[in-house]
Amino acid sequence: MCDEVSTMTTERIVGIGAGARELPSDGTPGGLATEDMVLNIGPQHPSTHGVLRLKLTLDGERISGAEPIVGYMHRGAEKLFEARDFRQIIVLANRHDWLSAFSSELGVVLAVERMLGMEVPERATWVRTLLAELNRVLNHLMFLGSYPLEVGAITPIFYAFREREALQAVMEEVSGGRMHYMFNRVGGLKEELPAGWTGRARQAVTDVRARMSDIGDLIMGNEIFRARTRGVGVLTRDQILQYGVSGPIARASGVDFDLRRDEPYLAYGELDVPVVTRTEGDCLARFECLLDQVYASLDLADACLDRLAELPPGPINQRLPKVLKVPEGHTYAWTENPLGLNGYYLVSRGEKTPWRLKLRSASYNNIQVLAEMLPGTLVADMVAILGSMFFVVGDIDK
């Protein structure tokens, strides 16, 4: 591409590498010159998990600068919280991360229950813990299937969806929903479990655990996949602490922190929660963390089912007034969502709607670190790095 510069005395040819050459007006060869090229990835692109835009500055085939630009899916959920009562805001909270709906509901009801000083029935606490771990497995299975697809392997996603369907069946039976479960309520859960459901849930967990080796062997034994991910997109511990990165991505870089173990909520304080970590911090380590976390969550689900079998019959929720008002004050609740730390800052002025409900979503912080991760890497590795960040764009934009 040629264009005249402002002095009208030279022509500049913008190319890549040695193809970029500045020529004087008399046509004699001049010195080499290069110019960076700005490339937009998105906002609609098959390499992104939603409508994300990446503004990349390229020096040849290498990325010299990266800016994640968010907001294309913004729905103003935090403002909508202020116009809905404490029962209705649950339906908004479970939609920003559509792969972790049950876990996202939990933070809201935990914050409201804390403000009310409400004690949830023991049975509801254990069922919540069980469903949260099943939801975690569903989330991770999606990324275990979609990530290899992004680096060229199509087969794993069929195995991942086979396992997802086994768990989706029991989640749909208990809640009536496949993605947006709306099963949490302030004070407990919507209703009692169907007859025989715990037996079917246990069988689903057993079946998924037995078949997970199909996914692991297929992917981890693939030399091409390992070559595309080992040593690529290394995220350091310092970068994690600076940007507030959390979840499996942080633990893959050696950050040994998990709210379920370190600041227990629900029934996690009575469980032995294994925290899966790696030290390499590359794309492969992040994938391995996700894979091992599936086994850990299946074990936790079995432990919850064992505990539920021991509990005597009892209520699954608390009886609430027709108009639920939360006392004036504020509180902060946070949960270990499948993608990382979710925080809920609730401010009430004694009305039936929140005065303010600030949502801290995991993906927003996790994706900001791309500005430091991508510079210096090749364009060919960009999709592999992007996919390994395991984000949902709705969780970024809210």
UniProtKB/TrEMBL annotation:
Pfam families, alphabetized: Complex1_49kDa
MF term (GO), any: NAD binding
Membrane in keyword set: yes
Keywords, in A-Z order: Cell membrane, Membrane, NAD, Oxidoreductase, Quinone, Translocase, Transport
A GO term from the CC aspect: plasma membrane
Residue ranges annotated for the NADH-quinone oxidoreductase subunit D domain, each copy included: 151-321, 324-398
Subcellular location, record wording: Cell membrane
Recorded coiled-coil stretches: none
Family matches, as SUPFAM superfamilies: HydB/Nqo4-like (SSF56762)
Membrane-related topology note: Peripheral membrane protein
First-listed, main subcellular location of the protein, grouped into a coarse class: membrane
Catalysis: reaction(s): a quinone + NADH + 5 H(+)(in) = a quinol + NAD(+) + 4 H(+)(out)
EC numbers: 7.1.1.-
Enzyme class: translocase
Domain of life: Bacteria
Function: NDH-1 shuttles electrons from NADH, via FMN and iron-sulfur (Fe-S) centers, to quinones in the respiratory chain. The immediate electron acceptor for the enzyme in this species is believed to be a menaquinone. Couples the redox reaction to proton translocation (for every two electrons transferred, four hydrogen ions are translocated across the cytoplasmic membrane), and thus conserves the redox energy in a proton gradient.
Subunit field text: NDH-1 is composed of 14 different subunits. Subunits NuoB, C, D, E, F, and G constitute the peripheral sector of the complex.
Family classification: Belongs to the complex I 49 kDa subunit family.
Protein name from the UniProt record: NADH-quinone oxidoreductase subunit D
Organism per entry: Actinomadura rubteroloni
Lineage: Bacteria, Bacillati, Actinomycetota, Actinomycetes, Streptosporangiales
